[in-house]
Amino acid sequence: MKNNRGESKESSSSNLDSRFNQTLRNVQGLLQGRSFPGKVLLTRRSEISNDSNLSRHTPDIERSYSENDIEPSELINRSSEGETQYTSNNDTTATTNKLKPSMSNIESTSGDAHKTVMGARATDSARVMKFTKELSGQTLRLETLRELAWSGVPPYLRPTIWRLLLGYAPPNSDRREGVLTRKRLEYLDCVAQYYDIPDTERSDDEITMLRQIAVDCPRTVPDVTFFQQLEVQKSLERILYTWAIRHPASGYVQGINDLVTPFIIVFLSEHMQGNMENWSILDLSTQKISDVEADCYWCLSKLLDGMQDHYTFAQPGIQRLVFKLKELVRRIDEPVSRHMDEQGLDFLQFAFRWFNCLLIREIPFHLVARLWDTYLAEGDALPEFLVYIFASFLLTWSDKLQKLDFQEMVMFLQHLPTQNWSHQELEMVLSRAYMWHTMFNSSPSHLAS
């Protein structure tokens, strides 16, 4: 028995090392013609040869500035003080059990995603068979589903898998349809109780909150025309107001409106075909619209249950993670960290929005669903893993940032050149995040001298 346990431990350690080394090899395959911060650290770990001719590629086209951009102080002032309603359980060791990020190219629901030469990892037949096999059982293994989803989910399976990853749909297939029906009816009751009432039955604070939501909904993802439809905005308004009323510890905070948008697109994709830009929500029945809203509401609730202090008074959860991000960047790329300090740039000035909106405003919208596959696969460990993703995202432009003064850095970080990004750039960000998490998370003082 002891020998079997010892062999099992050795096998587990060997599998982890194998996944880590394979990730390194995959990243090196993407690094033809570019370099990235932290390469020296990774070279020490993996003994990969150093190519002095590697150079960075930075897209020249910058994303337009959104009128919905918000300052940290504005967010803090608009949040409400109150008692927290839920508790979270952050498992900071969960990520090391995930499969390595793949160099996948997942077809976007909108049809606008750029295709790369790296292969369609999320939609190849072997992975589809694994997803299908896992979903076909009476009781699925959630950890196995997380490992598969981490590297990307085929678009047509996303609605089902997202519900399962968030715990909205139960793993037991016999109970699934009944639970969804009951929760959708419960959402309808909440809308009738809290939203479909005259203003005379609302408090002054509730009226103010509803008006703020009504102002923010038309500003949500302004560069995606689908979200300019009046009925889409009304659905968004119902979801946000109902959520805010039922979560008085935070109430509505700007930025939460962005977090609903991936759910809307993914759950509508079950009912609508073709390019997202050509969708019309008026083509759906009232029942289907209500079902989509309910799924968005409950999945948003599940997501935010694990990040409750990100949106309570003064948003301490975000401030804590911004500090961790600054420390991690210092350990990975000391030159850029020192330059930002010398120029007086505080991480709160740009990273607050990243944590608040989970990068939805920073990358093309057709990449958001792929990014959220990884987010949701992380489960309770997501808040901690966000630090690694955002460090990888920031250090994509390490060389560029070191050449800018304070004002130039502020402008650059507000208008990041991601407009022409494809899945390849996003997979690079996730791959580096995975490796740095593997290196630093279990030994936070590693290479911190």
TrEMBL record:
Basic and acidic residues composition-biased segments: 57-66
Domain of life: Eukaryota
Compositionally biased residues, Polar residues: 76-111
Region annotation (Disordered) ranges: 50-119
GO function terms (MF aspect): GTPase activator activity
SUPFAM superfamilies in UniProt: Ypt/Rab-GAP domain of gyp1p (SSF47923)
Residue ranges occupied by any Rab-GAP TBC domain in the UniProt entry: 152-379
InterPro entries in the record: Rab-GAP-TBC_dom, Rab-GAP_TBC_sf
Protein name: Rab-GAP TBC domain-containing protein
Organism: Aquilegia coerulea
